[in-house]
Amino acid sequence: MLLKRENILLVDDDIQILELLQRHLKSMQYHTYKAVSVKEALFILKDTKIDLLITDINMPEVNGIQLVKYAAEHYPHMPKLVVTGFPSVEDALNVIKSGATDYLTKPFTKSELEAAVKKSFASVPSQKSISTKTGKPAANVYTDMIGESEAFQKVAEIIDRVKDNRATILVQGESGTGKELVARAVHYTGKFARAPFIAVNCGAIPENLLEAELFGYTKGAFTGANENRNGFFQAANGGTIFLDEIGNAPLSVQNKLLRVLQEKEVTKVGSQKSEKLEVRIIAATNSDLEELIAKKTFREDLYYRLSVVVIKVPPLRERSSDIPLLVVKFARKYGIEYKDRLVRISQDAMGILERYSWPGNIRELENVIQRAVIMCDGEITLQQLPDTLKYKINFPKKSLKTLREKEREYVEKVLSLMGGNKTKAAKILDIDRKTLREKLK
Ligand SMILES: Nc1ncnc2c1ncn2[C@@H]1O[C@H](COP(=O)(O)OP(=O)(O)OP(=O)(O)O)[C@@H](O)[C@H]1O
Ligand SMILES: [Mg+2]
To answer: All domains of the chain, ordered by start, with CATH?
Structure first.
């Protein structure tokens, strides 16, 4: 296990102070995020778990006191340390009244900073034990999933309906659409969120091991089985098992899965005894199971058992109105990770991203943005986008017009600009009045 370091958010419009703070804090083993304005700080606060806020007061636009007030209201348990130039008594009073935990006067030494940071952390009850034991809080896992399009909202609605019961779910969708995220959202927003979520990639485990991995085995069941071992199913008891790439499960495993679904019990490899389990099964596939059934590589009865609830995750090209949201999210994520900064996106770059067809879906989009963030200087422009994006464009069929429609629109526009005067319009269009009359029919 890696030890989690505290995250400290540094806010100052002076880059040099930011870098100085960062150097000092890094050497004290803290992890830092930088923001040059309150606006940037708010974005980071929204997306990231911050354990301590350190902010300057005087900044253009919104000042640090307002940030502290906002944070006091929305993040009451996060300590807030204010760094200030020459505080008057009045200033100091304002700082404390705003909800700041403490303040530090510039210029400061490294040890003064260290003392102030330690004091700030000591001033609030530790939240750490809660967050490290259970991992990410449930809400966060769900909010990782974003989308406002109708297609996405439909998925969110189904998740909401099924999250609290153990009905078996089949998640279908092209590669990279977010199937695993859907499965996690079902688990972590539902009633059984505190029980385990176990993800198994049925395509990645060799066929001869998959059965033992899933259901466990008894000592002596096969050469090398030196002890009794539980499988993924036993480990997921009370929670959810996520069977990814179910289309790749060999028939022997399919037979056993069918039994689990029918009897709600599993049998270890090499054992005669079965065990009762309470596990919700979520299976996912990007292959067409009906085709596999026709080819007799997938059991039809298993397919029906699995598809009690079917969640179809739409490809990105069918929810292109979500592209800007996703782009901003990934730019922010990788901007903070690689540049310690928020990265902007130029308008023409966003235009290209919105029009591309994304055969690799959200995963492809994420990779493109990740790479662009690494290559850019604070802003993603056309230059950082791969050429393929510029040629393979997704034309939304419905909104495209025929040549005739386009022509008529233009003729009408010219005519109206000429105040309805057909002679003038015809002249501009370089056609005679008779042709114009025909076109308007
Ligand atoms: N709605 C969403 N909002 C934000 N990020 C998303 C969303 N859906 C998917 N992602 C991100 O896209 C990437 C791909 O998602 P995921 O791994 O769940 O896809 P998948 O359908 O399981 O892909 P594959 O078929 O290749 O296994 C992940 O990094 C995930 O975090
Ligand atoms: Mg997946």
So the answer is: 7-132 (3.40.50.2300), 139-312 (3.40.50.300), 319-391 (1.10.8.60), 403-440 (1.10.10)
